[in-house]
């Protein structure tokens, strides 16, 4: 069994009256891409800052690489790379200089550092922008630079706090592919995000957080098995009576049938032929309808069922 | 790690357009403006003689000191009298004469010399400069009197031996004080104190609770003290060099700072150290926003310079008279005084005293900043 790279026990952090972390427990094993998923203000960044020993906490313990984490634990710090939520680079330094500067805070040997910096530049795909100043880079390229500054010294533990916020799809894919490659090269990764698709795509284990608590923990499949919903069927432009809606909700394995803006939403729990059963009923009753499709549960459904609210604020 | 951080902090500051503007370009521009204004005044002053003034001095001390002084003031090259003095018997009479062809009215009030002028031309400026010089001499004499009768007598002898040559008022062989030197001393002091802006920016970029760059630096395995000392050293050397360049420029255009160049450069380095560490101190205060801290640094620099006479030459003697403690703790005033003493005095006692005061300020700011920002963990970020 892999060793725990990060171990958090009973962590409590208060900001005056607000309880940011409420007896929070977590164990992250070597080689994992661990996702911390939760809405804004759920305590993800506070957890990261406590792991990094930037924040003091009221109670609990944080261990990194088997030793208590403290501001003076330079041995642990040597092996940690951080990609902050906000871009943290100097506007006065070029792409190359920024990466070299942050890498140089860890690596003393000049030749080795040069090699690492070149590798980091290639890794994030900024070869053509080495001499550019950050202000000349697009948002996506700036995020890539931010990542390069955090990982150039080849850390064993990489903490990424929402690294894809406000990033174009091309850069986002590049970043996600990069994270998977870093993991294949041996790095343990802690990835926080409120984008459930990203977490589903790259994380081997996920913790769902809300109000400073760890609500659920497991692989994405394990998490999805925790909830009642196994499939949701959508039928657009449908016109059903109240009686027909009630009849649909009584179909085998269906536990909820609702209609909103002319779109029927049928939630099922278990069963293998739910879509066929629903379509048969529609056909038998000659109910006119539009597009029909079925979706498997997402982490948002998991979050919704556990907390009773959406993971992300609905976009306008 | 020290030299790595030193190199990049140096580079970051060198490329910081704002900092270079305030420490170098602004100083050069203002110096040029001062020189073009005062330079013309210098030339014009040569053409001035027999400026009509009225004098009414009912204070015995002022009458004794200033009465002798105005009689002796003359143009250096031509030997012509600078002032055509008319003594009057009452304040009202003086005021009446001022309305006519007289340029200025010197009178005493509450033991102080005052000047009333009829306009704002070059002749009026010369008269106000005379008053400023008089106050400076009184200040020097007061200082010397506290050092015992021997020092006082020696100074008086020198003062009168120089005065009797009708070549201006001097305290020694080196003395070459002109009316506008104070402005240029203040300009150098201002450039030094503008290092506080870089101190604030550096401190903010070093603290995890104030910037993401600070957070990134804090989680690295380079110790905070190494980062602090190497960074501050880099900024100090660079900004001192900037002020030296500005100083060199002022010398080139013809500003007379005297001949103690190495000690002036030492003063510049010490001044930048005070400026930088004061910025470090301001930057370390609590969780105030970057904008607020920058505003405090700007206010601190400009108020210091204002009180030492950058904008109004009369401020310096006024502060000396009414609130001497402010003069003692004002770094701009100490810097100006260090430069002034290099130009005027033959000995270095007063210069050394100023430099020691500035170094003490540096130690206080550094310790204060260190104590305020020494936390390794934060309650909130």
Characterise this structure.
- The complex is a heterodimer of chains A (316) and B (381).
- Chain A has 316 residues and is α/β, with parallel strands linked by helices.
- Chain A folds into 2 domains: 4-225, Rossmann fold, CATH 3.40.50.300; 231-297, Alpha-Beta Plaits.
- Helix content of chain A is 34%, strand content 27%.
- Chain A has 11 helices and 14 strands.
- Chain A has helices at 44-51, 74-78, 95-104, 110-124, 139-151, 169-184, 196-202, 220-225, 242-249, 274-284, 299-307, and strands spanning 4-15, 18-29, 33-37, 59-64, 67-68, 80-83, 157-161, 188-193, 205-210, 213-218, 231-235, 254-260, 263-268, 292-295.
- In chain A, the strands form 3 sheets. In chain A, strands 6-7-8-3-9-10 form a 6-stranded mixed β-sheet, with helices on both faces. A 4-stranded antiparallel β-sheet of chain A has the order 2-1-4-5, covered by helices on one side.
- In chain A, a hairpin with a 2-residue loop joins strand 1 (4-15) and strand 2 (18-29).
- In chain A, 42% of the residues are buried.
- With 381 residues, chain B is of the alpha/beta class.
- Chain B has 2 domains: 2-39 and 180-372, no CATH class; 50-164, D-Maltodextrin-Binding Protein, domain 2.
- Chain B has a 4-stranded mixed β-sheet with strand order 2-1-3-4, with helices on both faces.
- The longest helix of chain B has 31 residues, at 17-47.
- At the A-B interface, helix 2 and helix 3 of A face helix 1 and helix 9 of B.
* Share of helical residues of chain A: 25-40%
Largest interface: A-B, 33 and 29 residues
Q: Based on Cα principal axes, name the global outline of chain B.
A: elongated
Strand count, sense and closure of the main sheet of chain B? 4 strands, mixed
User: Unreliable segments of chain B (pLDDT under 50, ≥5 consecutive)?
Assistant: 162-175
Treating each run of at least 4 consecutive H or I residues as one helix, how many helices of chain B? 16
* Count of domain modules of chain A: 2
Output the strand order for the largest sheet of chain A. Answer: 6-7-8-3-9-10
Q: Give the low-confidence spans of chain A.
A: none
Average pLDDT reading of chain B: 83
Q: For the record, what is the CATH homologous superfamily label of the largest domain in chain A?
A: P-loop containing nucleotide triphosphate hydrolases
């Amino acid at each position: 069994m892999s060793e725990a790279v990060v171990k958090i026990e009973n962590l409590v952090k208060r900001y005056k009256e607000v309880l940011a972390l409420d007896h929070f427990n977590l164990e992250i094993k070597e080689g994992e891409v661990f996702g911390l998923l939760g809405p804004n203000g759920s305590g993800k960044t506070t957890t990261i800052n406590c792991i990094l020993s930037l924040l003091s906490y009221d109670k609990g313990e944080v261990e990194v690489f088997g030793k208590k984490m403290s501001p003076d634990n330079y041995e642990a710090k040597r092996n940690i790379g951080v990609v902050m939520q906000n871009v943290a680079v100097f506007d006065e330094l070029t792409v190359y200089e920024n990466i070299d500067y942050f890498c140089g805070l860890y690596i003393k040997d000049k030749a080795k550092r040069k090699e690492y910096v070149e590798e980091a530049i290639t890794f994030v795909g900024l070869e053509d922008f080495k001499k550019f100043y950050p202000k000349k880079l697009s948002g996506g390229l700036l995020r890539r630079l931010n990542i390069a500054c955090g990982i150039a010294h080849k850390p064993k533990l990489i903490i990424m706090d929402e690294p894809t916020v406000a990033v174009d799809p091309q850069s986002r894919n590049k970043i996600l592919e990069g994270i998977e490659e870093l993991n294949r090269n041996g790095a343990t990764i802690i990835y926080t995000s409120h984008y459930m698709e990203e977490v589903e795509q790259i994380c081997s284990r996920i913790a769902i957080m809300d109000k400073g608590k760890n609500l659920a923990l497991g692989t994405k499949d394990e998490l999805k098995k925790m909830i009642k919903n196994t499939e949701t069927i959508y039928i657009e432009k449908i016109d059903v009576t109240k009686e027909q809606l009630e009849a649909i909700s009584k179909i085998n394995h269906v536990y909820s049938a609702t209609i909103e803006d002319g779109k029927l939403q049928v939630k099922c729990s278990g069963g293998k032929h739910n879509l066929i059963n629903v379509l048969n009923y529609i056909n038998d009753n000659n109910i006119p309808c539009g597009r029909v499709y079925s979706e498997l549960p997402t982490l948002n459904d998991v979050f919704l069922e556990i907390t009773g609210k959406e993971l992300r604020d609905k976009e306008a | 790690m020290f030299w790595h951080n030193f190199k990049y902090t140096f580079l970051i500051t060198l490329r910081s357009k704002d900092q270079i503007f305030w420490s170098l370009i602004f100083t050069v521009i203002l110096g040029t403006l001062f020189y073009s204004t005062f330079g013309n005044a210098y030339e014009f002053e040569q053409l001035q003689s027999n400026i009509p003034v009225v004098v009414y001095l009912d204070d015995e001390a002022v009458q004794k000191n200033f009465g002798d002084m105005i009689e002796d003031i003359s143009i250096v090259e031509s030997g012509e009298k600078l002032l055509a003095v008319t003594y009057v018997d009452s304040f009202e009479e003086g005021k009446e004469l001022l309305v006519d062809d007289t340029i200025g009215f010197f009178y005493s009030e509450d033991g102080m010399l005052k000047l009333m002028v009829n306009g704002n031309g070059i002749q009026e400026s010369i008269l106000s400069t005379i008053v400023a010089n008089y106050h400076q001499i009184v200040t020097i004499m007061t200082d010397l009197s506290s050092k015992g009768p021997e020092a006082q007598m020696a100074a008086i002898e020198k003062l009168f031996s120089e005065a009797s040559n009708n070549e201006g008022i001097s305290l020694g062989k080196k003395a070459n004080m002109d009316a506008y030197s104070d402005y240029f001393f203040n300009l150098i002091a201002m450039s030094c104190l503008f290092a506080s802006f870089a101190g604030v920016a550096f401190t903010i970029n070093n603290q995890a609770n104030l910037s993401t760059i600070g957070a990134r630096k804090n989680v690295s395995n380079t110790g905070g003290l190494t980062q602090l000392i190497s960074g501050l050293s880099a900024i100090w050397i660079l900004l001192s060099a900037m002020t030296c360049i500005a100083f060199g420029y002022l010398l080139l255009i013809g500003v007379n700072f005297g001949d103690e160049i190495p000690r002036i450069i030492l003063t510049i380095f010490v001044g930048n150290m005070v400026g930088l560490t004061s910025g470090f101190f301001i930057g370390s205060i609590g969780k105030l926003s970057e904008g607020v801290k920058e505003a405090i640094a700007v206010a601190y620099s400009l108020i210091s310079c204002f009180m030492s006479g950058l904008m109004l030459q009369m401020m310096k003697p006024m502060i000396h008279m009414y609130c001497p403690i402010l003069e003692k703790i004002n770094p701009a005033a100490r810097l100006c005084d260090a430069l002034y003493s290099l130009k005027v005095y033959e000995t270095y006692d007063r210069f050394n005293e100023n430099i020691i005061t500035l170094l003490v300020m540096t130690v206080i700011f550094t310790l204060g900043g260190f104590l305020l920002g020494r936390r390794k963990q934060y309650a909130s970020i």
